[in-house]
Write a structure and sequence with these properties.
Layout lengths: L14 E4 L2 H18 L5 E3 H5 L9 E6 L13 E5 L4 E9 L14 E10 L22 H10 L8 H4 L8 H17 L4 H8 L6 H16 L11
Antiparallel strand pairs: 1-3, 2-5, 3-4, 5-6
Helix pairs in contact: 5-7
């Protein structure tokens, strides 16, 4: 199993950061509560659900990107643009069950280990709101948690942490495991998501449908069939 520092670097269109320890703690508290209440190891919440409406979201986190219109300034330096998150901000959490968690899954805060929490701008496909039918996921056994799994756990900011989940995934809530199993099997058998939709949801771009399907097969084998190697998404 490759170590994290041996994995290829990956970047999305934005870098992001929390602007204060207070806003980070507020986000983590809300995401952890959502994880426990909804049985979701990778919850996603809109900014307004955590910080309040509109201007309350200002000053909580910043998105950073290279200006696509003018990548370099007159002096040759990289020209970065900065943006406050407002109504289109999303908060992502990725958790894993703690060692020793019982067969019914995490029940209290200490039963969850935080892997990462990060803010990210909302994209074309909002994992908290996009209709399941639009993604071809309105099928028995699949619910919103599977969209969160794809967007957060397999998204550009956290996909290299998938290996950290392996040793404790069996201790996740049984209903959560079944949702992830059903969702992955549906993607493998029916291929409802195009590579463009996958990018809009995860910011990880695959060259074609065959490569995406092969990757998802490795994710399924890694989580459910004892496949040892960490699946590697494209750079």
């Amino acid at each position: 199993m490759p170590l994290r520092d041996e994995l290829p670097p990956r970047t999305g269109p934005w870098a992001s950061r929390f602007d204060s320890e207070e806003s980070l703690v507020q986000a983590e508290d809300a995401l952890r509560a959502a994880a426990l209440s909804t049985h979701d190891l990778s919850p996603v919440l809109p900014f307004e659900a955590v910080y309040g409406p509109f201007l309350n979201c200002a000053g909580k986190a910043t998105a950073i990107a290279i200006d696509p219109r003018e990548p370099y300034g007159p002096d040759g330096q990289v020209n970065y643009v900065y943006a406050d998150f407002l109504t289109l901000g999303l908060l992502y959490g990725v958790y894993r069950p703690a060692q020793g968690t019982g067969p019914e899954g995490p029940a209290v805060e200490d039963d969850l280990w935080n892997t990462t929490v990060y803010p990210y701008p909302g994209g074309v496909l909002d994992p908290t709101a996009v209709p399941l039918a639009e993604l071809g996921l309105e099928v028995p056994g699949v619910d919103r948690r599977f969209v969160h799994f794809c967007a957060a756990m397999l998204g550009v900011e956290a996909v290299d942490d998938l290996g950290e989940l392996r040793d404790t995934f069996d201790a996740a809530w049984p209903d959560y495991r079944e949702v992830i199993r059903a969702g992955l099997l549906h993607l493998l058998k029916n291929r409802p998501l195009s590579v463009d939709q996958w990018y809009q949801l995860t910011y990880v771009r695959f060259p074609d449908q065959q490569e995406l399907t092969a990757y998802l097969a490795q994710v399924y084998a890694f989580l459910f069939d004892g496949f040892d190697a960490v699946p590697l998404a494209p750079q």
